[in-house]
Every structure is written in structure tokens, then in C-alpha cells.
Amino acid sequence: MDIVIDNLPFLLKGAYYTLLITVVSMFFGLIIGLLTAIARIKGNRFLRMIARVYVSIIRGTPPLVQIVIVYYGLVDYGIELGPLTAAYIALSVNIGAYVSEAFRGAIQSVPKGQTEAAIATGMTERQAMRRIVIPQAIRYAIPPLGNTFVGMLKETSLVSVIAVTELMRSAQLLVSQYYVYMPFYLAIAVMYWIMSTVFTMILHQIEKRLSVY
Amino acid sequence: MINIQQLQKSFGELEVLKNISLSIPDHQVVAVIGPSGSGKSTFLRCLNGLETITGGTITVNGHEISMKAPRKILQREIHAIRQETGMVFQQFNLYPHKSVVENVMEALIVVKKMERGAAHKIASDLLSKVGLAEKEDAYPSQLSGGQQQRVAIARALAMEPKLMLFDEPTSALDPELVGEVLKVMKNLAEDGMTMVIVTHEMNFAKDVADRILFMADGVIVEDAEPISFFENPQTERAQKFLRQVSEF
Question: Do A111 and B93 touch (CB under 8 A)?
Fold first, then answer.
């Protein structure tokens, strides 16, 4: 227990990176996911196909493989990314696929009458999408997005393999220094659990706030 | 106002509208009645391009919907028609995430690029006109069906349409709420609005409409003034329909 407390600053720094990677990847994942969802619903045949293939590949391959491809694989083509940048890219692209599925379901659960009412007042399809459909879809999307995000928080532990010193790798470094396993791994398990729980609570609050009407 | 030539509409194999031709002059109030499944709602929805037609032409206010036109032009014409046409739906279709006054303001801001202040003023005036001045800040879910439908009418009127389409506006309402909506519609008719109303309210049609279109099986079976239609229907189809609705 004492060695955990002694090394707490180091672990907290790792937790900071875990949070940073989660939030940054979520942010870009949301943008990628929203665009992909719109491409799948409203795009022409070409865009729809691209979006479908993207989602299919991401969902059909392990995130660990995606991460090493971005970090190590791209080096073969002269693209050398820093570990943190590679982590952002791999995880944003990964989560974007899951976000797009959440958004797609949500957009489709907005009744068709909403779009009809909007275009009947003279809005274009695009305006109706942006002003009427998407704001409502976001509300439907929040529960599945919440699950995706908590999943993402845990998935960030995978980037430890490309030498990003986030929470998982912080523990691994301490383990190799002190040759004891349980205290450090248990400590980070607790820290992941606390972060997931706080995330979930925040999401519940957002959900509540958005369901005023 | 409206001129329809040989309008056809099919859903796949099913022919829903068969060769409909008619015109509707300015300020006329037309009630479209008939048994369910006769194509009334589809007919109405063709008028502002919510349904794509399969054949023929529809001209509203000089803008033409024709399948012969190139896609770009067709879209522009439909868009022009929608800007001059208000529509009221059976299920109200208010925006649930916006307050009552925002529902009415929305198109003014998005389509007419109006400033919020000016849009708010117009929306407030319209809401008083439909008797809902005190509900401005409520959300649709807090209103009764009748109130929601009156907001929907105000929302359609905000764009200053030259034509109003009503798709069974009272069919989803509890009986005691029907009157308040019909009253707003009657006022609108008295102000000279051109209106096409798909309805099951026979008394309202008799009272307010200038003209009855009786539809069955995708065809306009009778096109007559209300008095002659209700007192002296010409076809057996119409006689049977009127007998059935009066049995209640």
C-alpha cells in the first residue's frame, strides 16, 4: 500500500494522460462519427459505400491491431507519428465508427414527420437536418454514446503498447521497477473504475438536463 | 392558384392517384373528403412536393412540378412552392425540442434569415391570433392536442403562405378539442386564405368550404358545391359514403 501512495503522483500523471486521450479521441470521434452517420443516411452511393466500408473495417478488426498499424505500420510509408499523436488518430478513427452507429440509429429514430414539417415550411433538407433532426437525435444518441465513451476510457489502456505513458503503462513501469504486481495493478483498476463511474454520472446528468421537455 | 393536369401517383404497382386534373382559384376553400385509402392525403402531399409524382404536372402560383423537368429545376420549383405554402399535419409534428414561440420563429430565422427580435414579434402576434399568447414559452409536450395543432397552424402562417394545406388536422384530436382548431381554420377561410383541407369533419366541410372534392380509389368522383354535394350527391359512391358517415 505504501509503495502505491509513494508513487501516486506518477500514477496520477498516467491517469491524466488516460483522461486526455479519452477526451481528445472522443471529441474527434464525435465529429468523424456524425459525418459518417450523415454520409450513410443522406450521402450519394459513393459516400455511403465509403462510410459502410469504414465502419465495417473498424468494427471487424481489433483496436490493438489498428493502433499498431497507425504507429508502426505507417513508418513503412515514411509517416512517423509521435506515440501520443498516433494514439489520438487510432482511437478517434476507432471510436468514430461506433459513434456513427449510435448517431445513425438516433437520426433514424427521429420521426419522419419532423423533417416533413421542416421542409414544408421552406427549409432545405440540409437545414431540416441541422436545425430539427440532429438536435433531437443527439438526445436519443446519448445513452449509446455514453456506453461507447466508457468503453473508450478503458480502451485507452491499449496504447500502452506504443509507449504512451498513460495509466496502464505507468503501472507497468512501476511493476518493472519494484517487482511487485498486485498493488499497482489493483490501484489502477480502482482508478479506472472511479473515472468510469464519474463519467457515467456526468452522462446521467446530461441526459436528465436534456429531457426537460 | 393551383392547376393540376393529369396527375398520377403510384407506389410501385399500386396506382394511388389516377389522372387527376383540376384547378383551384385564389381564395377558394376546398374540402377533400372520401373513404380512407382513397388517396386524399397523397393528393394533398403532392401539392407541396412531399410526395414525388409519377406523371402529369402541378402548377402552384406559377411554379411547376413536372417529372419532365430536370432534377435541379424540379427541386427549385418545389422549394419555391413550399416557401409559399403552409402545411398542417394530422400528428401536428411540432418540434419537441423547441418552445412554442421558437416553433413558430424557426422558419423565419432559417429560411427568411430574419433577426430573432423581428421573428419573435411575428410569432407572438400569430400566437395571439390563434389564442395561445400565454403559451409562448411552453413546450409542445405541455400542451393539449388542440393547442398543439393551433401552434402548428401559427407555424405555417408565419411564412405568410398564399396557400394552406391541411392533412386531416382534427383526426388525432379528442372530440372536445376539435372545435377550437376548426374555429381557427374558419377564421382563416374568412380572411380569404386559399385552403385545401383533407377532412372527415362533414359539418365543417359543409359550413366553411366553397367546394367539395369527393375522392374514391384515386379518382375525383365528385367536384361540387357543398350544398349540392351533401343534399344531392350524383354518384352512387358518394351516396353510399354519405350514408355511412351519417349513421353515427
Answer: yes
Q: Give dist(CA B41, CA B11) in Å, integer.
A: 14
Its domain, for residue B147, covers 2-246
Per-residue confidence (pLDDT) for residue A212, from 0 to 100: 56
What is the nearest CA distance from B245 to chain A, expressed in angstroms?
29
State which H helix or E strand residue B65 sits in: strand B63-66
C-alpha cell at A164: 504512451
Helix pair angle (A134-155, A182-210), 10° resolution: 170
Number of domains in chain B: 1
Which ipTM value was assigned to this complex? 0.90
Q: Is the dihedral of CA A36, A38, A41, A44 positive or negative?
A: negative
Q: Of B124 and A142, which is predicted with more confidence? A: B124
> Is residue B43 over pLDDT 90?
yes
Cα gap A152→A162, rounded to integer Å: 17
Whole-angstrom Cα distance, residue A28 to residue A23?
Answer: 9
Domain that holds residue A23: 1-210
Q: Do A117 and B48 touch (CB under 8 A)?
A: no
Contact B229, B212 (CB under 8 A): yes
How far is CA B185 from each of CA B43, B147, B235, rounded to the nearest angstrom? 20, 13, 29
Domain count, chain A: 1
Categorize the per-residue pLDDT at A206 as very low, low, confident or very high, splitting at 50, 70 and 90: confident
Task: Phi first, then psi: give them for residue B93, nearest 5 degrees.
Answer: 55, 40
Q: Which helix (H) or strand (E) holds B193?
A: none
B93 vs A contacts (CB less than 8 Å): 111, 113-114, 116-117
CATH number, domain containing residue A167: 1.10.3720.10
- Give CA separation, B15 vs B9, B38, B104, in Å: 6, 11, 36
How far does B161 lie from chain A, in Å, by closest CA?
Answer: 9
